[in-house]
Amino acid sequence: MMRRDSLIALLSLGLAAPALAAPPAPAKTMSEKSSSAPSHFEAETRAWHAGRIARLSSEDGWLSLVGLHWLEEGETRLGSAPDNALVLPASVPARLGTLTRKADTVSLALQPGVSVTVDGKPFKGGALRTDAEGSPDTVALGTVRFFLIRRGDRLGVRVKDAEAPTRKGFHGIPTYAPSAAWRLEGRFEPSTTGKKIAVPNVLGEVEDMVSPGTVVFTVGGQEYRLSPVEEPGSNQFFFIFGDLTNRDATYGAGRFLYTDLPKDGKVVMDFNRAYNPPCAFTPFATCPLPPPQNKLKVRVEAGEKRYGDH
Asked: Where is the secretion signal located (predicted)?
């Protein structure tokens, strides 16, 4: 049963007690200042979320995403005219040019009189790098940007517009009230075999991703486990997880969480920083989904809630 002092603490923060498992008692954290001063913890959490909202709603953030077009072998005409194979926003010329795919190479030929930049420099045409090679070449014209992405054997064109209705009409994301009870210290169990886990995505594909091990933590006296994945060049763990709030309060396809790397065999899991994947805001993202072992049978009532009708 939930301890009386834990229940009082939750109610004081405006949170209802979870139906299936009580939140744990406040855990030891990386920041002693946060654990000893709840007001500082809440301020830190809200500041982190404000930064998250600023990135999401920036001119180049996920809310500016307006299109995704998968390229077939050969030529693809693009521009704002509706008879183009790849239709761009109305601010772009009716005929911008042609993308030509030859196996894994894509080049752009511009129509006469059309001026664009790539990464801020004038671009007259030629081959374009994809995101599989690090930062992709970003073609820009006015408020519109597009670049190439690789997903498995697919090559696609991702289109962003700073004037996108999704960006202009954005008014924030509801969240649970910050709660130190959901900042947990987990035990890291490293993998000694360089194991990979199968991670599905919204395209119906499955990618084998390197997982460094498993983090074990306790909620309401019950142990739970989550497997992070490693991202190239990152110095953090990345968790793709689901929980029982996905049914009614949070995004149905799960949420994301980053943590610092283990310290003395421990990982701080601050679920107050659990956030919605890009697919919660746009149909043009290619989000990973929680692998089966990362679907928690508990309500994680912390972090971002469901956005709009998603």
From this structure: 1-21
- Whether 308 is covered by a domain: the verdict is no
Identify whether the C-beta of residue 182 lies closer than 8 Å to the C-beta of residue 169.
Answer: no
Task: Please check whether residue 46 is in contact with residue 68, taking contact to mean a CB–CB distance below 8 angstroms.
Answer: no
Provide the greatest CA pair distance for the chain.
74
pLDDT band at 309 (very low <50, low <70, confident <90, very high): low
Alpha-carbon gap, residue 47 to 26, rounded angstroms = 20
* pTM of the shown model: 0.83
Helix (H) or strand (E) holding 9: helix 4-12
pLDDT in tens, 230-256: 988 889 999 999 999 999 999 999 999
Residue pointed to by tokens 């939930």:
2
Residues 69-127 pLDDT 10s: 999 999 999 999 999 999 999 999 999 999 999 999 999 999 999 999 998 899 999 99
Which tokens is 171 given?
Answer: 């008014």
Do 85 and 116 share a domain, yes or no?
yes
In angstroms, the CA 236 to CA 273 distance is 14
Compute CA 173 distance to the chain's CA centroid, rounded to the nearest angstrom. Answer: 14
CA-nearest of 145, 146, 147, 143 to 163 is 143
Start-end of H helices in 18-109: 32-36, 38-56
- Joined together, the tokens standing for residue 188 give 């890291």
Torsion of CA 298, 299, 303, 304, to 10 degrees: 120
Cross-strand pairs, 275? 256
Same domain, 44 and 157: no
Q: Is residue 309, in this structure, part of any structural domain at all? A: no
